[in-house]
Design goal:
The complex is a heterodimer of chains A (about 400) and B (about 220). Chain A has about 400 residues and is of the alpha+beta class. Chain A contains twelve helices and eleven strands. Chain A has two domains: about 170 residues, no CATH class; about 180 residues, no CATH class. Chain B is built from seven helices and ten strands. The chains are: A alpha+beta (about 400), B alpha/beta (about 220).
Chain lengths: ~400, ~220
């Protein structure tokens, strides 16, 4: 590695940039679909955030209203718990500075489906929801913003002109998930809800924790529940869309709105990752051929004294994998800074509602995936050059790869 | 020890055919120190490479230590070289990234059944024989030409080879260092009974060996 510092630096740069991009990409997907805390039940949690209304042969899609959900999406045999929530925003003014905060109107069941870590206090319960109590659970980012290091419990924050008492502080969820918010309050404090409204369309979603992993059963039950029901005058039929985060992601590349197409999505992800990895791998192959070519004399000496082609290939590939792992570690480190830079860039487009700079989390799954990517990159970029060199004639190699 | 029978080496390209060795017949006996001399391009290095199993002849057969090696696979040839043969090159061919002792240990890396401690012990012994025990941690670029060649000799003998092949071992050295290296090889031949085949341009060096084979245009002339 130290022999030709230029080639080593180039190799490490190529690998680290590749792994950096792969890590950010993998981290993003991981946060969208993986069952990491607080969404430990993500693989069994379906989100109903869209209804399709069919009227006179035309389809209209919209978010459901709380009345629609409470009337039709309740007491399902195939689900354990159902929660309703709406995601809004509010602006605070602190020390003359305005800041935006994500706000979630939800219920007591929200805390049963998710597994938030309470750093202080507790969640609001059924009683508080029923009474429409002005209580709030905030995340640690919001606590730091409003209260610095001071105690937050019992203090109030102003939301839409009303004071809400802080009763709990939670570890922040990833901003890429449906359960993320800065502040959580009972939905019964939502002054925009018209609970007697018969409308289908609204701004609420439902979270359904299925009893088993058979999610088609839940969708089938929902279909049966809504069959033949005209929940609004004039509507021919209504269909709800209930999918887990992974299913939503799998549906993103399909035209079929009924079921996710894992195969198609997997192919898209695979193609993207392959492009990310293959192009640098080809460049690394070329660099490695040059690097190893400069060691032709050494290869010749080793062969003279009894090294077989297999031994040399193994040696060269292992050397390459070590360099790749070093580059990969650098890439992992770079991904932390690069992701923060990316978020700073995103935040410039919306300075009021800023994403936390530590939004990209490297879970053990992402770390393992990146380690695997390093090994794969090391193998792909190392095997062919090593094999080529190991086949070199001894005399030719001793002459440094020159004919004369 | 080494028998070459009707050895031919022909290099073919699309347009030209060059005969480097033309039906060469040579016997080297056990314990002999033989020189091969001849003008540049006469085929002596080619002959040495074929004897040392680093290159394959186009025709003929080779027997080394009573084994017909012409039909050996690449893997078998590599193992045979590791066990029985040692090489000393004109340009030393030391690996610059490895220390002296690591360079010397190299042949034993490819021999199974030898522990790291045993390898180290034998490397120190070999360096002792060539008088370089004090330079184990040095790197090749910190040594003189003569010292590098002595390291190369230590590397060549660490595996206790039966035959040593030396291709112009003093070619890149001044007369004093060349004399030193030659004396070392003579000592190895005398005390250990190692068979040595040496290619040289230097008549003075050749005279010190037991037999001189003269080559011209790919053929033995005397």
């Amino acid at each position: 590695m130290l022999r030709k510092k230029y080639y080593t630096a180039l190799t490490l740069l190529g690998i680290s940039l590749t792994i950096m991009i792969v890590t950010i990409f993998a981290s993003f997907i991981d946060q969208i679909i993986s069952a990491n805390p607080p969404e430990v039940n993500r693989d069994k949690t379906l989100i109903v955030d869209k209804v399709s209304v069919f009227k006179n042969g035309e389809q209209t899609d919209a978010m459901p209203s709380i009345t629609f959900l409470q009337k039709n999406i309740r007491d399902l045999e195939s689900t354990e718990i159902i929660s309703y929530f709406s995601t809004k925003e509010f602006v605070s003014l602190l020390n003359g500075k305005a800041a935006g905060h994500a706000l979630k109107f939800t219920d007591e069941n929200f805390w049963k489906i998710t597994d938030f870590k309470f750093l202080q206090g507790k969640a609001f319960d059924l009683n508080e929801v029923k009474k429409g109590a002005r209580v709030a659970v905030i995340n640690e980012k919001t606590k730091a913003y409003f209260f610095n290091e001071n105690e937050a419990l019992g203090k109030t924050i102003n939301i839409y002109g009303s004071s809400f008492k802080v009763i709990g502080v939670v570890k922040s969820a990833t901003p890429f998930s449906k359960v993320y918010s800065d502040v959580y309050v009972p939905y019964t404090t939502d002054t925009n809800i018209q609970l007697t409204d018969k409308e289908i369309e609204g701004s609420y979603s439902a979270m359904l924790l299925a009893k088993t992993n058979d999610l088609k059963k839940v969708r089938a039950e929902l279909k049966t529940r809504l069959k033949g029901k005209h929940t609004v005058l004039g509507a021919d039929s209504v269909k709800v869309h209930a999918f887990t985060a992974l299913e939503q992601f799998a549906k993103s590349s399909s035209r079929n709105d009924d079921e996710p197409e894992y195969g198609k999505t997997a192919i898209v992800v695979l193609v993207v990752l392959t492009l990310f990895m293959l192009i640098p791998a080809i460049s690394l192959v070329n660099i490695n051929i040059t690097r190893i070519g400069e060691r032709a004399e050494e290869i010749g000496v080793r062969k003279s004294f009894g090294a077989t082609s297999g031994t040399l290939v193994t040696q060269l590939v292992i050397e390459n994998i070590i360099i790749t792992l070093i580059g990969g570690l650098i890439g992992l480190g770079l991904s932390v800074y690069a992701s923060q830079l990316l978020i700073h860039l995103i935040n410039t487009f919306d300075p009021l509602f800023k994403m936390p700079t530590d939004s990209f989390i490297i879970s053990w799954q992402v770390f393992s995936f990146c380690l695997f990517s390093c090994l794969l990159l090391g193998l792909i970029s190392g095997v062919y050059p090593a094999w080529k060199m190991s086949r070199m004639n001894v005399i030719y190699a001793l002459k440094g790869g020159n004919n004369i | 020890m080494i028998q070459l029978l009707n050895i031919e080496k022909i290099y073919r390209t699309d347009t030209i055919e060059t005969t480097a060795l033309n039906k060469v017949n040579i016997n080297i006996n056990k314990g002999e120190f033989v020189s091969i001399m001849g003008p540049s391009g006469c085929g002596k290095s080619t002959l040495l490479n074929i004897m040392g199993l680093l290159d394959a002849p186009t025709g003929g057969s080779i027997t080394v230590d009573n084994q017909s090696v012409t039909s050996f696979s690449r893997k078998k040839l590599a193992a045979f070289r590791n066990l029985k043969l040692g090489f000393i090159f004109q340009s030393y061919h030391l690996i610059n990234d490895l220390s002296v002792i690591d360079n010397v240990e190299l042949p034993l890396l490819y021999r199974s059944g030898i522990s790291g401690a045993e390898r180290r012990k034998r490397a120190l012994e070999a360096l002792g024989k060539v008088g370089l025990s004090a330079r184990t941690k040095h790197y090749p670029n910190q040594l003189s030409g003569g010292q590098r060649q002595r390291v190369a000799i230590a590397r060549a003998i660490i595996g206790n080879p039966e035959i040593l092949f030396a291709d112009e071992p003093t070619g890149n050295l001044d007369s004093a260092m060349g004399e030193e290296v030659m004396n070392l090889m003579l000592h190895l031949n005398k005390t250990d009974g190692t068979t040595i085949v040496m290619v040289t341009h230097d008549e003075q060096m050749a005279k010190k060996t037991q037999r001189v084979i003269h080559f011209f245009d790919g053929q033995q002339v005397s």
